[in-house]
Amino acid sequence: MKQLMGVINLDHELDVLSELTYFRCGAAVPFAGRYRLIDFVMSNMMHSGVEDIALFVRRKYRSLLDHLGEGGPWDLDRKRGGLFILPPDWNDPSDVSVGELQHIYNNQNFFARGPAQYIIHSGSQHLSSVDFSEAYEYHIKQGADVTLIYTKAEELLPEHRPCVRLDVNEEGIVTDIHHEHDNTNIYMDMFIMEKELFLQLMKQCIAHQESHVFRDAIQKNRHKLKIAGYEYQGYHAVINSLESYYRNSLDLLEQEKYQSLFSAQPVLTKIKYEVPAKYLESADVRHSLVANGCQIDGTVENSVLFRGVKVKEGARIHNSIIMQKCVIEENAVLENVILDKDVVITAGRKLQGDTRKPYVVAKDMVI
């Protein structure tokens, strides 16, 4: 949709996943066997016809750059427009902006050159299959200054606690923005706004040394702006802690949840050519998600295995997430464990965590 340009703001999504974000930003963390967290919002924008997308990143973005490349899997490797990965470049001596607003100030050319009249602003922590084109049409119909995208949580979980909540009246207008923990209207860190109004509000915030896009430009001005609330109904998960990452990953082993996330529209990701998974004579795999390139000669139950994992004879894996190219040697036992990429668990080792707090091994470790 040429009326919309995308802004994916990753400025504050850095270290929330502990060991998994030692070497990468949160948006680059692998998820569901073959994806990264960034893939979901990128795919939603692509399916909604958004042709210009800017990513605001501050540090730990090498892995993200490698994954996204020029944006080919999302049809964003274009001669005009496409994907813009915008790391910090604070070389303007007159710049007085701080916090997230530094990205806006230092990348004004992105907004000026883009033909779209409206902005969809999002993070990467809320996984969904939201249709931004429908949200945009709702925004226009309401005649709103800004439309906040939210969902009603069926059950309030620990990861919902830091989320912003919305009060929305029968006409679909947001009447209050707050952090009352018993409110089930979860703001998904996504909003739509006219580009000129967005830039005007950003300019005012910068002039007042404010630092946060949503809090300072929208929440503080909620009595001056007409704010609509677009209710998204579909799969939703918040990945803002190690525990939420672990639980929501294993929840996808339930077919209903897996289908609700992936059947609405395809989730696109970096293409990697791998041979099919190979199950050897001693393999016993149950209720698990196994990606291409795996070679299994042990027992795997209720677990997620990413590409190229090797599970040798006698090894047992239960309730665990094993990332790309890990090697589990003979008779090793893993239960309630997360292994980052390229980890080797030597023969006979046993690692056991708790379902509420999994045991995590950072990438490239040998245990």
Automatic annotation (TrEMBL):
Entry annotated with the keyword Ligase: no
GO biological process, one term: glycogen biosynthetic process
Keyword tags: Glycogen biosynthesis, Nucleotidyltransferase, Transferase
Source domain of life: Bacteria
Enzyme Commission number(s): 2.7.7.27
InterPro entries: ADP-Glc_PPase, GlgDAde_trans, GlmU/GlgC-like_hexapep, NTP_transferase_dom, Nucleotide-diphossugar_trans, Trimer_LpxA-like_sf
Domain Nucleotidyl transferase: 18-177
An MF annotation (GO) of this entry: glucose-1-phosphate adenylyltransferase activity
Enzyme class: transferase
Domain Glucose-1-phosphate adenylyltransferase/Bifunctional protein GlmU-like C-terminal hexapeptide: 282-351
SUPFAM superfamilies: Nucleotide-diphospho-sugar transferases, Trimeric LpxA-like enzymes
Family: Belongs to the bacterial/plant glucose-1-phosphate adenylyltransferase family.
Stored NCBIfam families: glgD
Name this protein carries in UniProt: Glucose-1-phosphate adenylyltransferase subunit GlgD
Protein's organism: Paenibacillus lemnae
Gene name per UniProt: glgD
